[in-house]
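Handoff note, outgoing to incoming analyst
You'll be picking up this chain. Sequence as last confirmed:
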Amino acid sequence: MHYRTALLAIGLSLASLPAFSQSFVSSERYSDNPMNGVGVAHNAYTGCMAANYTGGGVSAHVENLVKRCGTPTEGDDAGFIRKHIELANATRGDTRLSMAENLRAYRSSFTVEQFAYFEDVDRILAEAASPEEADRGLKALEDQAIKYLGRSDDDLAVLGAISTARHSTELWTQQNPIAASAQGKIPGWLQVAIADATGFVSGVKACGKLCGWVNAAIQSISTAFEVWGDND
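Most recent structure output, in case you need it:
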């Protein structure tokens, strides 16, 4: 990973992780998204994993998440680690594909209206010319989803995915601004944001909200190291 990106993640983790670990309450006053906390969790724990990275891939990321970052494990640390290593490996998306394409296996479990939000996330991220434009687009989509979606499990999965995509984009573009890429090449920040939002939905489908944001954070750090490498 670029060292400047690692330093950004470290700063975010130190700033937000202790306060967040007490609850899912977000520090963002403007957000009425009932799933805003999963985006906050994503950035806090992704930052902590980056700060504690020593190599080793998914297994090391999950162990750091538990042993160094204090993620809630519901009592069985060893079982939690095994479970989330398996989940992360089983739900790893294809960074060449869109979020909607990566989630095609779950297409039938969402309504047309619900699944359309995943396609909207893809469109907003792909068309954004700047971090600010991506943020505005995702916030507008989030406001729309808050207003028109219900609060069923699948509605909340959509709301959580938008929150995760928005927070991930904020995290990975602060020191890696969106820039034009070579024709046919997907920008690194976009690959990571898609992996994160996809990881959240697949985690929720596997075992609920905790699995969702934990899987999103693991996919985030794993994909970031894959995209940018360990060295600047």
